[in-house]
Amino acid sequence: MYVILVYDVNQKRVGKMLKLCRKYLNWIQNSVFEGEITEVKLKELIMRADKIIKDEEDSIILFKSRDEKWLDKEIIGKEKNPLDFII
Amino acid sequence: MYVILVYDVNQKRVGKMLKLCRKYLNWIQNSVFEGEITEVKLKELIMRADKIIKDEEDSIILFKSRDEKWLDKEIIGKEKNPLDFII
C-alpha cells in the first residue's frame, strides 16, 4: 500500500514524530512523508504515533492508495529539506 | 482532477499562500489542502503560487489523482484547525 502522511504537531513533539515516521516512510517535506508500507506496519506506525501526539492539539492525516500509480507527484520550489542535518 | 497540496514556506509568506490556496482548494490541516480542481484552475494556482514562493527556500508538493476514489483518507488526532481565526 502507498501512503502519504502529513502531521501537524506541537513543536515539542516534532522531533519524536519525525524520528518515528522516518523509520517507516520517506521524508519528502518538512512534515510530509510517503512510501510503500504494509497494513501491519502502518498499524504499528499509527499506534506508535498515537502515543506521541496529543489528540486535542495535534493531528496526522493519512492518504492511502492501493497503488502509487494512481497518483502523480509534482514538486514546486526546492526539493531537498534543509532540516536534514538537525536529526 | 483530485489534488492534495502541501506547502512548506517561510513564515513571512504563509499568510499569502494560505489565502491563495483557500481560493482553489479545501483547507484540511495547517499547510495541507485537498479538493477537486480542473487542469486550468490548477495551472492558474501553480502560476500564482510560483510568484509567492522563493524557490531556494520554499516548496510545494502536489499529489494529483484522476479520481478521489483511489485514495482513502484517515485523520488521527484533532480534525479542526485552530488557526482558522487568524485569517
Overview of the molecule:
The structure is a homodimer of 87-residue chains. The first copy, chain A, is an alpha+beta fold. Chain A has a single domain, classed as 2-Layer Sandwich (Alpha-Beta Plaits), CATH 3.30.70.240. Chain A is built from two helices and five strands; from the N terminus they run βαββαββ. The first copy, chain A, has a four-stranded antiparallel sheet with strand order 2-3-1-4, covered by helices on one side. The longest helix of chain A has 14 residues, at 11-24. The first copy, chain A, starts with a strand and ends in a 10-residue tail after the last strand. The model of chain A has no long low-confidence stretch (mean pLDDT 89). Chain A binds chain B through residues 4, 6, 8, 28-32, 46, 49-50, 53-67, 70-79, and chain B through 4, 6, 8, 28-32, 46, 49-50, 53-67, 70-79. β4 of chain A pairs antiparallel with β5 (72-77) of chain B.
Question: What are its keywords?
Answer:
87 residues, Alpha-Beta Plaits, globular, alpha+beta, homodimer
Q: What portion of the residues of chain A fall into strands of 2 or more residues?
A: 25-35%
Helical coverage of chain A, percent range: 25-40%
* Largest interface in this structure: A-B, 36 and 36 residues
The ordered H/E elements of chain A are EHEEHEE
Biggest sheet: strand arrangement of chain A: 2-3-1-4
